[in-house]
Fold:
Amino acid sequence: MALEYLEQEPWRFLISSATVIFLVLNIAAVLTLAERKVSAYIQLRYGPNRVGPRGLLQPAADVIKLFLKENVSPGRADRWVFLAAPIAMFLPAAAVWLVIPFGPGMVVADLNVGLVYFFAITSIGALGVIMAGYGSRSNFSLLGALRGAGQMISYEVPLILSLLGVAMLTGSLSMVDIVEYQAGGFWNWIIWPQLPMFLAFFISGLAEVKRIPFDLPEGESEIVGGFMIEYSGMTWALIQAAEFASMAVMSAVAATLFLGGWQPPLPFLDLGVFNWVWLGIKTTLLIFVFQWIRWTLPRLRMDQLMDLGWKVLVPVTILWLFVTAGAMLVV
Amino acid sequence: MPRIGQGIAKGLGITLRHLFEKKVTRQYPEYRRELPERTRGMLTVDMDRCIACLQCMRICPDHCISIEQTKRDRGGSGKPKPHAVGFAIDDSRCMYCSLCVEVCPVNCIYHTEEFEIQAYNRLELARQFGERPVDPHPTVKKEKRAVAKKVPSRRAPATEASRKEEAA
Structure:
């Protein structure tokens, strides 16, 4: 075929990463509607249902509105840092998708250090929060940013520890290898031997993406928006998109590492090239759990947050690391 | 067995149950619920019954009623009585306190069941009821003067109508 050169290296990477960016932006837009719908249904409401059939065009209307809004920045803000912060928050959320395998052979970059890449990129998200808080030159922003820094750095530890078990079991840091390891049905998924690790990963993932039981950096009832208080228009939209995209990315990583990625739950459900449907279903379910938790639980206090991170999650993950190691020795 | 996460599980159960329950939202423009019997909607005036006593105008805390008063022989009794030639209710000010309705001696000002009112301009919210329009936004100072002029005290010089009457 004439289009075969598209599978050659520079083109393949450029096209697939453009596709991924497109996907991430759309996921963020769709998730705004999903969030509002889930919250509405939990609160016995209908949510947005006027724009388009059942409100499906609401994200488009929102995007148009946000594009038309003015970008206001505080007069004394550190303008470059202020404007760079939303980008510094959004790009990591988009970049993690590069190592996630969507199906057999469908991965933008099969890094042999995929897990390390994931850790490295997600910790840049904390930098974006700090930049936003510092650049706004507002007390509320700075408070939110300090909380965010403390929270995201301390939850990075259990996040990394909880994935070490996966790396030990599969003997590889590549996401593709980890998915291959879980082939053959849902009983082969890593979630079963690593259930406490999965819970720890999920909880620290919640904290890492600043979702509600851990939304202290935002803290809308006490510091009215925290680090994003001074943003408006598209810069604000980019921060929101970054939050939704990082929620999606956390779900996708959890699905890839613990729930078998694109592997079908039962062997006969293999869809071949369309196995990305399974990754989509698993990711969607996890995103729903994120939203479900958000509209159920109240926010933690700062000391409770630190207690949960350092006194519960870190010991549990270290303990289960030893259990995993012992089991691998015995079996 | 320690009860770790029991409260969280209970809360999640409740929210999950609500997710599938019947929704209570009323889709407003399509669905309108029946209004209660004594709904305080927008005010309206029955100008045929109005005796221009100005009590509603005086009691209104928001000064939303403006009346222009003259004397006219309506009943054909040969005796001119106060008559409202201009009557304006400014809905941008009205707070639906119902004081004017209570004070009206002939029950000519009353609430309707209309409550949907919108305009691009605040002046459009003032509704005129009389034969000729009245300025619905008189300043307070002007209003005082207007009242003093329009409501002649017994000693005040007679208006044109009464002078004619005297001559007759």
User: Anything to note?
Assistant: The first helix of chain A runs from residue 9 to 42. The interface with chain B takes residues 38, 41-46, 292-293, 295-297 of chain A (CB under 8 Å). Residues 14-330 of chain A form one domain.
